[in-house]
């Protein structure tokens, strides 16, 4: 398909993983954030996005774009966003174009990633890293996941689960670098 | 009728048939209500692990033994105020019931209600009354206030032991033994408190106790010692005795008949068994010295004590393995095991039964192993001499053959020898234990090496050796010692929580999960088993499940400080600092010398950047364990964060000296030097460190940073490249690559500089 010129990067993502497999050096950042949505149908609210249950989903109930806002108390480094969507179950509710924005708050969000999903069924991984090694992480107060359009031109959308990952902090506080060798690690903690 | 019923009750207790005993005793109390009978009933309940029943029936009783049992029940039910009131009511003239055992229990109550000094006083008193009260010495070591073992287990003690033993040796011996169990029911009165509580108790225990009520000949009971019947508490003495003696306990003449000498006897037996159970876990050197075979008996008796001690010890130490040992009985309840855990009895019983015919299970019980064996001997001898009947009771008879004892009469020189042998053993073990609690691990190890092989190769000692290596951060040696301990006593759970932590540090996930499975199958209700399981999950980074396991461990025994500390570690891993702080503080409430908890709190505050608090906590940990290089290096880090760099550097130097194998202090030193701009110094240190740990990426990364600051771009580049080759974490990769990019900038500006 022709690549759209909008957004900084646009890619097509097809399919989806049935399993959620994440690197060991990433950790789930969701608990540190306040989650909110732009609209929802009663009974299918924001909690369904975080309940680790793939049968429950969030259903929006308003005009596009539908937004999921993730706000942190302090700036955090984020690396990966993973969504669970299923075309076979949700059909016209399945999101198609997704835009990820980051910033300090609602007033200065800037788009950092755009993807287009094509009939996805499972976990879809969206990395937030740039090409430059200095841009492995996005350091931000807030992340916003915007569903711009759905498959088959549906109005409302279903999202079954969202996970957000960032790097693991240094288990030893106050160190410039993580330790890698066994000698260092053995002596670095007292249990 | 009263006598017959009482006798039947005691018999049942000796045979560990609690339901029968309880039923008969309830009829007895209904027919002839009296404090003495209530005491017997309470001891039945306590042995059957029904402390609440004992509590209710003994409320308001006055005689010494009843008060003792009541206090015991209160302690098990965690009603420490009432326990204290029972043991030392306001009229200060009232003697603490049951002498040494009473003092010991009172000491425990004071310990758990945070009155350390009073606790120490009482433990010391208990020890002076009964030098073989190892549990009291253990508690003193845990509180960090024990005197040197040579002072405690000295010649004066030897004389006391002999005196007590001889006194008890007489007919009542049999009863004594049993009496020693907590349950000493009636004899208490007869007993004189100061006699070496335990020992005598053992032998005489039964007798003495019995004295009070029995119609038996009870020759001995009375005289014996002062060792008040208080044995009960600790008396696990001769679990075996129970078996053997149960029958006749006390009075020699009747002994043989399996007439229970008195309620005491029975109880003792029961107690003993309990204790024994405890001991089993302990696997201490049980020594049963075999002194013509009689030793066994004696040892049993001793063990009952040891059992007790063990329980005490176990109780005292957060490690409460008790339940584990009691597995047999299945009580699982850790505290109860201490005291009377019905389970213990059961286990004891089982033990004894396996042991043997008349031999008291003491041998097995020997866990306490240490001195007991010796003791046992003397006892045996004594018992045998004292009375035939009693002798039996003693169950100690090692070989069963002596069961009838009757004839053995220990000569006083033998007793003296026996006593001094026991004390010699106790001195070594006591000193070793004391030093290891003071964190002077190397010294403790050298003392343990002086033990005879047969004692060294027992679960208890090997596990202490393992703990000493663990504290010196020598995990390989610790692993070796603990695995030998497992081979020596595979049923013992004492110290296995530390073993699981050692395996966690060594990252041996197979061995760790195997250990955890085995422990759970040995005793599902022991705190240590769940600690091991939790460590297993934590190693696989499943912190939530690990936390659940540690919480289960806490539920099983809330007096087990290490379980609380481990919960704290998991909360920190899950970044729940509030709960982490709470867990560490609970651990400290139980054992304020648990330096791991102080360290944990220091780490939390370091993360939260509350550096003053962090420094204070690390310093507390350092004061308790002044030889640990890990603690020193963190104290130095905290000082550095507070900008007290000179002190920080000094601390790092000390850490380096304390343990040459620890690379961290050197690394931290380099960090500090960088922050005070001594770049050359830092580079020198890092070069040295490179030799020691050539695969540590952070060394090269830091060197790269330093070279960058020095504008030595070639070197910086080289080191950053090396750092990246060593596969650092993703965050570091980003950092290093970013640093490399920045390195290039000056190059681009100065054209003609070729960097790569």
Automatic annotation (TrEMBL), chain A:
Keyword Secreted tagged: no
GO cellular component, one term: anaphase-promoting complex
DOC domain: residues covered: 5-191
GO terms, biological process: anaphase-promoting complex-dependent catabolic process; protein K11-linked ubiquitination
Claim: Electron transport is one of the keywords in the record: no
CDD domains to which the protein is assigned, alphabetical: APC10 (cd08366)
Alphabetized SMART domains for the sequence: APC10
Region (Disordered), start-end ranges: 1-20
Superkingdom of origin: Eukaryota
Sorted UniProt keywords: Cell cycle, Cell division, Mitosis, Ubl conjugation pathway
Family assignment from sequence similarity: Belongs to the APC10 family.
Role this protein plays: Component of the anaphase promoting complex/cyclosome (APC/C), a cell cycle-regulated E3 ubiquitin-protein ligase complex that controls progression through mitosis and the G1 phase of the cell cycle.
Record-given protein name: Anaphase-promoting complex subunit 10
Organism of derivation: Salvia splendens
